[in-house]
Fold this sequence. Notes:
Layout: H1 24-32, H2 35-40, H3 44-49, E1 52-56, H4 62-70, E2 75-79, H5 83-94, E3 102-106, E4 119-125, H6 133-145, E5 147-158, H7 164-181, H8 192-197, E6 200-208, E7 213-220
Parallel strand pairs: 1-2, 1-4, 2-3, 4-5
Antiparallel strand pairs: 5-7, 6-7
Amino acid sequence: MEISAASAESNYSHNQFDLVAPLYPLLERCVFGSRLDRARQAFFDAIVQADRILLVGEGNGRFLMSLLAHKGNGSIKVVEKSTVMVRLAKDRVRKLEAVPFDLEFIETDVREYNPANKFDCVVTHFFLDLFNPLAQRSVIKRIAELTTPSGTWINVDFLPARTLRGGILMWLQYTFFRLVSQIEARRCFDVSAAAAAAGWTGVEAISYLGGLVVARRWQKKPVPAASHDTPNATR
C-alpha cells in the first residue's frame, strides 16, 4: 500500500472543515441518523467495479473504508481540502492490514488537481451543496474534464426543500456551517442544469428523506459520430 499526499493553495473556496471534522459524524448521526450513509451507498456496485476512482470531498474516510472492504484492485485517489479530514481518513486506513492497490490522498481543491490519468468514476458525496451556482458549475466542469469519455459520476446531495420542516432543517444546517466552517452557500441548489451543460446525462436517481436528498448516476453524453456524406453539388 502506498499512501501519499500533496497540497496546493486554493483561491476559490474558503471552506474550513478542520474545526468541525472530529465531530462531524456525531453531528450527522444526531440530525439524520444513518440515512445519509444509506444515500452514500447508492450505486455502490458501479463504483466498486470502476478501475480508477476519484473521491472528491471524501471527508473522514467512512465511505472510503467501505470501498476498501470490497475492492481488490485498481486505484483510488482522494481529493480533500481539509487537513484534519485527511488525517482522520488516513488514521482509518492505517488500521487495515493491507490495501492491495494504489491509494493516494491529495490535499487540494479539485479544480486545481491535475492527475496524470483520467478516472472511470468520480464520486461526490454532500460536496457540491457547499458552493453557490457559479462555483458549482466550475467544479462540475472540472469533474467532466477529469473523467474518461465513458466515465461515470456519482453525486449524492441535498435538494431545495419542498416542505416547511425540510426548509427549517436546511436553514439550521446552512447557518451552522456558514458560522463554523465558512462555507460560501446560504442554501442548496439543484445542479441538474449545470451537469447537463458540462456534458453529463442523468441515468438514474434515488431519493431519500422524502426528496430532501438525491443520489444520481451521471454518464458522459455520447459524442455524435461525424458525418462523412458528401453533399450533392448544385450545378
